[in-house]
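Notes from hallway chat w/ T.B., transcribed later so I don't forget. T.B. wanted the structure written out for a chain they're using in a teaching module, and asked if we could keep both sequence and structure tokens in one place. Agreed to drop them here.
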Amino acid sequence: MTGMVCAHCAAPVTEEIERISGVTAARLDVDSGRAVVISDGTLDVTGVRAAVDEAGYALST
């Protein structure tokens, strides 16, 4: 992810990702810019990208 510089930045992104249907947990590492998303099924990257965009950041893959 790009644009996150602190834990305060990660909070709204985490909240948006956790709103995705099937997501059971999300953890963001600001230092590495990586996210770990756990879901109870197949996770659509398009939905994750939209959630990150909604929070005001960009997903880089």
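Follow-up for T.B.: The radius of gyration is 10 Å. Might be a good example for the class.
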